[in-house]
Specification:
Elements: E1 13-21, E2 26-46, E3 54-63, E4 69-74, E5 78-82
Antiparallel strand pairs: 1-2, 1-5, 2-3, 3-4
Length: 84
């Protein structure tokens, strides 16, 4: 969806919908919470010609209303919407 780190601020409330395409269907999951962090983090996976030769993922951490922290990998199937 072209999200950038600058679009979201710590303390901002968001609704995140992620889709995982399958062969015959698409799995959808939605969570709502408060942004605690949005950054790129490297994985343990090797990826040629990337920074530090590692695969980097956009990761969004949100705190749910019950206090649970959820870390989401943000990709082209992720929709993030501000919630007032």
């Amino acid at each position: 969806m072209g999200h950038t780190i600058d679009q979201f601020e710590v303390g901002q409330r968001v609704k995140v919908t992620q889709q995982i395409p399958q062969v015959a269907e698409t799995w959808t999951n939605t969570v709502t919470g408060t942004v605690t962090r949005y950054e790129q983090q490297k994985t343990g996976s090797w990826y040629a010609h990337a920074k530090d030769d590692k695969l980097w993922l956009d990761r969004l951490t949100i705190k749910l209303d019950d206090g649970e922290l959820v870390i989401l990998n943000v990709d082209q199937y992720t929709h993030i919407q501000r919630v007032d």
